[in-house]
Write a structure and sequence with these properties.
Elements (H helix, E strand, L loop, with lengths): L13 H20 L3 E2 L5 E3 H9 L3 H6 L1 E5 L2 E5 L4 H10 L9 E10 L11 E10 L4 H17 L5 E7 L3 H15 L8 H9 L10 H7 L2 H7 L6 H16 L5 E2 L11 E9 L7 E7 L3 H4 L7 E7 H7 L8 E6 L3 H13 L4 E3 L6 H11 E6 L2 H6 L1 E6 L4 E6 L3 H6 L1
Parallel strand pairs: 1-5, 7-8, 12-13, 12-14
Antiparallel strand pairs: 2-4, 3-4, 5-6, 6-11, 7-9, 9-10, 10-11, 14-15, 15-16
Amino acid sequence: MVIKALKGTKDILPQDIELWHKLESRALDIFTKYGYKEIRTPILESTELFARGVGDTTDIVNKEMYTFEKSDRSITLRPENTAGVVRSFIENGMTRLSPPVKLWYKGPMFRYERPQAGRQRQFHQVGVEMFGIEQPSADAEVILLAVEYLKSLGLCDLEVEINSLGCPSCREEYKKKIKEILKPEFDNLCEDCQNRYEKNPLRLLDCKVDSCREIFDKPEIKKVIQSDFICEECAKHFADLKSYLDKMHVKYSENKLLVRGLDYYNRTVFEIKSNNLGSQNAVCGGGRYDSLVKNLGGEDTPAVGWAMGMERLCSLLPSVEPEKLDAYVVSNFSADAFELVQELRKQGIKAEFDLADKKFTKQLEKASKIAKFALILGEDEIKAGKVSVKDLEKSVQTTVDRKDVVKQIKG
């Protein structure tokens, strides 16, 4: 029996990897320009990190984590990376660094959920985290960074949605109002929303079930949801954020139902959406999480960040044509061809030759498909210390001294 990949996991094949390289190289280029340094955290973390960080009332912790026991310890494959980056920030003494501390990451995450387009059980994220700045300029920068990164990939038809969840004190009154207005509808809420009603009523607003959305659209309920519940300080933070985004010409809309699915968010939350992804159309999500560092044992440190699903980005982008070799050596003299290829590789030329001793015409045919130049090395060329160089795009062939091959290829 053939062993296949587990459900919800996929191989990233050579014909697809060029697009992934594009996502990663653009991230390195743009994030570095903004002053972010790459961090790589372990895929395995203590389960407690996510229970305390992400929140034990979230779907991620309750339903979706891959958790197992090993040597009397509970270990989890990371379902997201903010908690892991915060753990590293604390453990490695980055609180002593002058703020802002700007970090970015890429890598695989794991969640047990129903596989669908752009979402797998093993999936990949690219994300940024900024520590140490409480001002809304930090919120604006990370949103602008996300927009610039997406535009650099050719994604311009995007919608930025923002909201403010307020601080813990002003949010409590809002939670009470939400529970009060939804109490008569309790029996009509979906099972998940009924569970969230007491534990985390704000999460009700994040529900995607149609029957719940219809309840939230009722005028008397919508009025409460759309009310300006945040305190004066939080309102100023949100107003200043919008002012920064206006100044940077970032188009956005306010969405009072936007709460995000993780417990650690406060004040600013945001999503960037694409209309080409159907109902599950968010390509980027993030926000401010000022209490998370302290909750995980560190000093009181403001923070803000976001993450993007790389599979979703790939689904929105055209495939990238594999880059051709600089040269393919065509010869019936394998040892000499091998020697020439190695000379070229040492000089930075991407080159190959036929390892299987195929006929000359077959080698030339392959060269025309995968290389820019065919380097013909026959008996006459070997004796004369020369190489015939054929430009496969222009169909022009010249014979040059062996020492001049690299110069001929580079033009």
